[in-house]
Structures are given as C-alpha cells and as structure tokens.
Design goal:
Layout: H1 3-73, H2 76-99, H3 106-113, H4 123-132, H5 137-168, H6 174-276, H7 281-304, E1 310-312, H8 313-328, E2 334-341, E3 345-347, H9 348-368, E4 375-385, E5 388-395, H10 412-423, E6 427-432, E7 436-443
Parallel strand pairs: 2-4
Antiparallel strand pairs: 1-3, 4-5, 5-7, 6-7
Length: 456
C-alpha cells in the first residue's frame, strides 16, 4: 500500500471529516442553548405581559371604587383619588402602547417595571417578542382588542369628567347621578367583556410564541442527536481505519524485515560461492558488489513507486543495464546498448532474481563476448504475452565458448544463474549464431511470501 495514499485516506481525510462533524455539532449545540434560553424568555415575556394587564385591571377596579364613592358622597377627594389611579393606569397604557410600536423603547418599558408592584423576569425578552412577532396574526389580534379596551376606558373617563363638572356647578340631581352611574356601569360591563377577549388573545399569542420556541428547540435537539449519531459512526469508522492502517503497517514492517533477512541470505550465499572458487579476489569482490547493487536498485525503485510490492521492470532494467555498461565497458571499447523494453509490472519476489540473472548475463557478455574487438552492440528486449514474460539479450560478439556454458559451467556466475532460474521456475535458452542470443522466459506470479530465499 502506498504510504502517501495511506496518510491521505486515513489521516488527513478522516481529520477533515471529523472537524466538520464536530463543528456542526458545536454549532447545533450552541444554537440549541440559545433557542432554549429564547424559549424560556418567551415564557417569561408572557408572564410579564400578563403582569402588566393584571396591574392594569387592578387599577381599573380601584378607579371604579372611587367612582362609586363619588356617586354616593359627591366629594371632590374621591374624584382626585380617581385621577391618581387614572395616572397610574396611563403609565401602564403607555408601556403597553410602546410594546406594540415597531421599535419599542427599552427605557420607557423599564420605567413601568421599576416599581414595587410589578417584578419583570426578563424585560428584553418581552421587548423581543413584540419586536419579532409584531406582524403575526395573534399579536395583531391582541393589539386590536387592546385598542377596543382603551376606547371603552376613554369613554368611561369622559363620562366621569363631565359628571364631576356638573357636580362642581351644583347642576346635578339624584336622578342625573343615577343615570350617569348606570351608564358608567354599562360601559364597565362592556369593558369586562372586552377584557376577557383581550386575555383570550394574550393566551393565543403566548401559545404561538411558546410553540415557536418549542418547535425550534425540538428541531435543533433532533439535529443534535443526529449529528451525535453521525459523529459516533464516523468515530467508529475512524478507529476501524486506524486499526486497519496499523495492522497493514505491521504486516508491511514484518515483510520488510523478512526481505532484508532474505537479501542478507542471498548475499551470504553468493559470497560463499565466490569463496569456493579459485578466481581473483578483486574480481570476486567487484562482481559481488554489482550483484548487491542490482538488489539495491530494486528496493530503490520500490521506494520511488506507488507500491511496496511491485516493480516497473522496464524502468529497473534500463537503469540496471546502463549501470552495468558504465561499470564493465572500458574506455578502449565502443560497445553500444540498444533497448526495446515493454511495460511489465513484476512482484518483488521475482524481480530480485530476474535482476541478478540480467546482471550475470550482461556482465558476462561485456567481459567475454568482445575479447579482441573494439566495438560491438548489445540488444536487450522484453515483452509480456498473457502472464508469460520474455527477456532477450543478444550481442554480436564472438559467441559462446565452453567456459560460458550456463548449464555445464562450474563458474560462480553460472551457478547463480542456474539457481535463480530454478527459483522463478523459468527457462533459459542459449543460441550461438554469430553472437550470443539468450532468452529468459518465466510466468508472472503475484504470490506473496519470502523473496530471494534460495540461499537461506
């Protein structure tokens, strides 16, 4: 698995999703808190408005008591007491009128509650309700009933003022007083009926406001629960992905350690083969170095690719053959390399032995195929048919000799080639027709497991 994709698929992508989910969760939780507080304020606002009307009714009944006393005793002090109560009623009326305005003045409303008789729970909530619900039908109905109630009260007040003026002029008889009192009581009956309609409107408006806050709170609560479920699911998936990624890395690390062990075994085996030969020590070290280099290139290609298990064999062979040519071709020889390499993806368990085989054949061709010649050409080709891979190495050198017989030679290189061909279950055909023509054929295998374990 590609390490960059692993990070992108399980860390960055996952963190981004979690941040978005957590952000929405926090936003919804904050909104729920705000709207819950808003709903509480709505309930408090309904209570405050009911307190205003209750105090208004209290003053109205007080005013009625003073009117009744005035009708019995015709004493000016009862009219003055009536006017005092009327002033208190006017203060409450101004406050209620202010609430019905488009932009209620906080100071005006606050002055009404700044008494020992009315205790507000949340003045700002009361103002907010009337500001944002002013155009709603329940509030408009409430306002309509309030205006009708004020009109009845105004007619009562005019009746009392005219009556008192006649009393002051001594232009009032018992029959006139009785008629005025009956008219006042008739208006008072209308006031009571209208007041009941007003209180019913208060209940309707209060219910709408409360339901509005309640439904929004319920919707946000459901959203909060859904987000919590999504968050839990995402968290569980995240944990699963992290566990899967951790397991894959553990498996990958074990595979790497196993490959290192196998490669060390291959190197050890090749050095042991060299030690059993009677060849030149410097030459043996050079050949061993090149074999190790061919193995190192495999792992370099793996590191640079998007896979930890497959190699682009064409790119690897191009780099490997160029390295062999630069190492073995001396300045006094002009040997050119021609490549025709098709695209082949090969499992590392086969790529390492194939690389070592190519290394041995190429080195042998350059060292021995052009003895006594100043120039020559080596051609290397590769193609895949179904799952069969065919690699051909051809030169125009002197051809094969008995020492170069890969099947019968006792040289270290020949032994290594024979062992590696057996490992990949391949076939090697050698032809001598005016130069060496070697074809390596093997079937691709994606089987996992130990690689390069032949010399263990």
């Amino acid at each position: 698995m590609d390490e960059d994709k692993l990070k992108e698929g399980n860390r960055f992508y996952l963190s981004r999703k979690l941040i978005i989910v957590v952000g929405i969760f926090i936003f919804a939780a904050s909104g729920l808190t705000v709207l819950t507080n808003f709903s509480i304020n709505m309930i408090a606002a309904s209570g405050d408005y009911s307190a205003l009307l209750s105090q208004w009714n209290h003053y109205h009944y007080q005013a009625g008591m003073h009117v009744e006393r005035l009708s019995r005793k015709s004493d000016k002090k009862h009219f003055e007491a009536y006017l005092q109560v009327k002033a208190q009623k006017d203060s409450l009326r101004n406050t209620i009128d202010e609430l019905f305005s488009e932009d209620p003045d906080v100071e005006t409303v606050f002055r009404t509650f700044d008494t020992d008789e009315i205790y507000p729970s949340e003045i700002s909530g009361l103002i907010t309700v009337f500001r944002y619900f002013n155009s709603s039908r329940p509030i408009q109905e409430l306002r309509h009933n309030w205006e009708k109630l004020k009109e009845i009260e105004h007619r009562q007040h005019e009746l009392i003022v005219n009556w008192f003026k006649k009393l002051e002029k001594k232009d009032s008889s018992d029959s006139l007083t009785q008629a005025k009192l009956e008219k006042y009581n008739s208006l008072n009956d209308k006031w009571n009926d209208q007041n009941r309609e007003l209180m019913a409107s208060v209940g309707d408006a209060s219910g709408v406001v409360k339901q509005f806050g309640l439904w929004i709170s319920v919707i946000l609560g459901i959203l909060l629960v859904l987000i919590g479920v999504v968050f839990s699911v995402r968290a569980n998936k995240s944990i699963g992905r992290w566990e899967e990624a951790l397991y894959e890395k553990e498996v990958m690390l074990m595979e790497i350690h196993h490959r290192v062990k196998n490669n060390m075994a291959v190197i050890s085996g090749m050095l042991e083969l060299e030690s059993m030969s009677n060849g030149n020590a410097d030459k043996a070290l050079k050949e061993s170095r090149d074999r190790i280099k061919s193995m190192a290139m495999i792992h370099e290609k793996l590191y640079q690719s998007n896979s930890f298990s497959e190699v682009d064999l064409a790119a690897y062979m191009k780099e490997l053959t160029n390295h062999i040519c630069s190492t073995y071709i001396t300045k006094d020889k002009n040997i050119t390399l021609e490549s025709n390499l098709g695209q082949v993806q090969l499992n590392i368990n086969q790529a390492v032995p194939v690389g070592l085989i190519i290394n041995e054949i190429m080195a042998n061709a350059i060292e021995h195929g052009f003895d006594g010649r100043q120039s020559g050409t080596i051609k290397i080709g590769m193609h895949q048919v179904d799952k069969k891979v065919h690699i051909q190495i051809k030169d125009d050198g002197k051809g094969i000799s008995a020492d170069d017989d890969f099947e019968n030679s006792e040289s270290t290189g020949s032994a290594i080639i024979a062992a590696l061909i057996q490992q990949i279950d391949g076939e090697l055909s050698v032809e001598d027709n005016g130069g060496l023509n070697i074809t390596l054929t093997f079937e691709k295998s994606d089987a996992s497991g130990s690689s390069n374990a032949l010399f263990e």
